[in-house]
């Protein structure tokens, strides 16, 4: 069998190939799961950065911005690396199991290619989701010079974080096709709890 | 050299559950010379299934068919029936059968 030859020559063909890969290994389902889980992590971690800086009396917004960016980069790399390693190990094991049963080398079949493609997509989603979520939460801090009130920037960032959490809950509710608002409040509760515990521990 | 007009190929194939037989049958139907394809599953396991693939047409290419099956993760266990020539000859029932 020919290896590594181009299998599509136009965008519709490429999309069809992606659709086939998705059908074979269920990429969208696992990417969706990783996206929700890691965006949730990203928002909560950024809430931690914000509340920590606020309670420490930091009013120079460049400090939480720098910490936030550094944290989101670290979360992005952590997500990318972690997902790549775990997914490639899992996919390789599945492929090896299938090879044992079918007695053929699956690495250059559509199944092998779908597995490799899934690893890349899931890793990118896993890396981008927390970093992107963190950046969104930090927007009011970036706008600090225009808002001109650090406390208000912190407050707005906290508000965006809670809104994002609620949105993620709605997204999960949509996935489960049940109780959208219920899921929204469950994720929102996590954010409120994180803020509340931080304030309780940080209170003099 | 005239390779002969291969008109029917029946294969016993072990294939993964995905890509499913709807996709596979469509892909095989696009191969050169294929008039029609039938895939019948006769056994399902945890990750794989056994399929009987019947392809009919004109100037069929066994190699193209085998490559298509392998490309989709399947393995040809046996070639169970073939027919070639100017017309398709059916198996004849004899007294010994």
Q: What can you see in these coordinates?
A:
The complex is a heterodimer of chains A (204) and B (97). By secondary structure, chain A is mostly helical. Chain A has one domain. In chain A, 84% of the residues lie in helices and 0% in strands. Chain A is built from seven helices and no strands. In chain A, helix 2 packs parallel to helix 4, helix 2 (27-55) packs antiparallel against helix 6 and helix 6 (150-176) packs antiparallel against helix 7. Mean pLDDT of chain A is 89; it is low at 1-5. Chain B is an alpha+beta fold and 97 residues long. Chain B has a single domain (6-84), classed as MTH889-like domain (Alpha-Beta Plaits). Helix content of chain B is 20%, strand content 43%. Chain B has a four-stranded antiparallel sheet, covered by helices on one side. The chains are: A mainly alpha (204), B alpha+beta (97). The interface between A and B is medium-sized, with 15 and 17 residues.
Short description:
The complex is a heterodimer of chains A (204) and B (97). Chain A has 204 residues and is mainly alpha-helical. Chain A is built from seven helices and no strands.
Strand content of chain A: under 5%
Terminal CA distance of chain A: 71 Å
State the order of secondary-structure elements of chain B, H for helix, E for strand.
EHEEHE
Radius of gyration of chain B from CA coordinates? 14 Å
Count of separate DSSP helical elements of chain B: 2
> What is the overall pLDDT average of chain A?
89
Q: Tell me, briefly, the overall form of chain B.
A: globular
Instruction: Give the mean pLDDT of chain B.
Output: 92
Strand content of chain B: 35-45%
Gross morphology of chain A: elongated
């Amino acid at each position: 069998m020919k290896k590594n030859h181009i299998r599509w020559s136009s965008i519709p063909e490429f999309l069809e190939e992606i659709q086939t890969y998705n059908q074979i290994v269920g990429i969208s389902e696992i990417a969706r799961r990783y996206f929700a889980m890691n965006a949730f992590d990203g928002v909560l971690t950024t809430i931690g950065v914000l509340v920590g800086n606020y309670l420490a009396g930091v009013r120079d917004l460049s400090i939480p911005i720098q910490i936030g960016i550094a944290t989101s980069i670290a979360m992005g790399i952590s997500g990318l690396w972690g997902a790549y390693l775990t997914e490639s190990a899992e996919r390789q094991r599945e492929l090896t199991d299938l090879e044992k049963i079918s007695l053929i080398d699956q690495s250059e079949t559509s199944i092998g290619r779908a597995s490799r493609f899934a690893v890349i997509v899931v890793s990118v989603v896993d890396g981008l989701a927390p970093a992107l979520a963190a950046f969104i939460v930090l927007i009011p801090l970036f706008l600090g010079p225009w808002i001109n009130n650090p406390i208000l920037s912190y407050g707005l960032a906290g508000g965006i974080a809670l809104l994002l959490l609620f949105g993620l809950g709605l997204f999960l509710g949509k996935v489960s096709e049940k109780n959208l608002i219920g899921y929204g409040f469950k994720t929102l509760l996590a954010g409120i709890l994180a803020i509340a515990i931080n304030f309780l521990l940080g209170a003099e | 050299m005239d390779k002969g007009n291969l008109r029917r190929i029946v294969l016993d194939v072990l294939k993964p559950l995905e890509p499913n037989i709807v996709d596979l049958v469509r892909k095989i139907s696009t191969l050169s010379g294929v008039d029609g394809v039938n895939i019948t599953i006769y056994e399902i396991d945890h990750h794989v299934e056994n399929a009987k693939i019947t392809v009919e047409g004109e100037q069929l290419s066994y190699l193209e068919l085998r490559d298509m099956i392998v490309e989709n993760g399947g393995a040809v266990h046996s070639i169970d029936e073939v027919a070639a020539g100017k017309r398709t000859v059916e198996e004849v029932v004899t007294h010994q059968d």
